[in-house]
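Data availability (excerpt). The following record was deposited with the supplementary files.
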Amino acid sequence: MPARKAIAATKGPKRSLKQEVTEIVAWLKRTGTQRNREGMARYAIPSDNAFGISVGTLRQYAKRLGRNHELAAALWDTGWYEARMLATFVENHADITPAQMDRWCRDFDSWAICDTACFGLFDRTPHAWKKVEQWAKRKPEFEKRAAYALLASLALHDKAAPDAVFLRLLPLIERGAADDRNFVKKGVNWALRGVGRRNPKLHAAAVQVAQRLAASTEAAPRWVGKDALRGLLSPAMKRRVAARGRVGR
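Predicted structure:
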């Protein structure tokens, strides 16, 4: 039913941008449910500005809308959670500017919107590497998390990036591990694991960082180090990294 509603919402005569946003928000209101809003709370996603719609339903709707830079900006500006998720799905990464990335980053209020923007959009832009270093200096929890979520996304998706750029950013990860806020330290952990899974050289470097963190007397870096080591030294990870080493030769 949600998919059919989405199709119907996009048909008809050409509308102005304002009309299109109004119709989309109206569709979001009709489609959202209280049950889904309550479920968001279990995953630490604020629901005050949300309708309660699954990500799968939003992705289906976004396919009907197509890529549209102006629409993405207008949807983001509504402030609604689902509208902002749609914005990340319909935005064209080639149109994104550093200023836009900064504006959206300042609006992040949950791990969900932060990670979705970083993992599926921002990491495709030529500005991503600079933003990792800039955002790591931010104070707000989700803005700082964005630095590490973006680095983890680059580690997975930027196949052409040289080892040197990741090695240069490992100290950034190590410093970030001192932040004991839940979503920051989890982002740091994600980034460290992501770097370590790329190839044997980076795996060895990431393990060294994780070992130092695990030996810390402070709780936050110790947690990051121990948790990262469990993933980095697991049999499955070792096999994966070894296979990538053979491919690289």
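Summary of structural features: The chain is about 70% helix and 0% strand.
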